[in-house]
Amino acid sequence: MILPILLSVKFAALATAINIPVAVVLQLFLVNHDFRGKLVIDGLINLPLVMPPVTTGYLLLILLGKNGIIGSLLYSWWGIRIAFTPAAAVIASMIVSFPLIARSLKISLEMTDHRLEDVARTLGAGKVSTFFRVTFQIILPGLINGAILGFARSLGEFGATMIFAGNIQGETRTIPLSVYTYLQIPGKEHYAAGLVAVSIGISFAAMILSSVLNKKREKYELAV
Asked: pLDDT tens digits, residue range 108-150?
């Protein structure tokens, strides 16, 4: 019962760690630029929020499966197989959780007072320095909340993982997949209940941590 928990936390942490820099770069570009097709990109980013996770997994299989559009090239050229591997579980988690991180960042960036950035530049700060010293500090609470929400969503991912990564014991069988598996076996319902309790506990602890970090940051800003 321990292994599914470790796999779930590992996959969720990796998915969140990869999603954060991608979301920051993408939302910085989208918020600061207007161009044709921007609404289409926004729609694609948020599409996993409204699509059934099973559909997401199926599309990933079509794209990255061994016989998929991109996956077939990866396999024939370099022998790389993504579907039904731990990497597939991470990718599935990334796709379904990315919109939550991106939306939180977008809201934070849109509420940023750009006059502070202008002041930093007039004082000689470059674009990179202005981002880390000013912009990043302002959007950090939104980034933390987005990361926590993304982590919790990844932790509970079932449909896309089942289709794209499979239910392979010791490799891709996360908490939700283990719960599903145990419920199919008579007499194993108590294992499923235990995993559900652990999942709820981890998600709740993550939300509490987010609140604590935000409160500490607010106190620090008031003190400064």
From this structure: 888 877 777 777 778 777 777 888 888 888 888 888 888 998 9
- Domain tally, the chain: 1
Q: Which two tokens stand for residue 26?
A: 């993408």
- Alpha carbon separation from 190 to 8, 44, 169, 214 (Å, rounded): 19, 40, 19, 36
pTM above 0.85, yes or no: yes
Q: Quickly list DSSP for 1-47.
A: -HHHHHHHHHHHHHHHHHHHHHHHHHHHHHHH---TTHHHHHHHHHH
135: domain CATH number is 1.10.3720.10
Structural domain that includes position 154:
2-223
Q: Provide the token pair at 123.
A: 């004082």
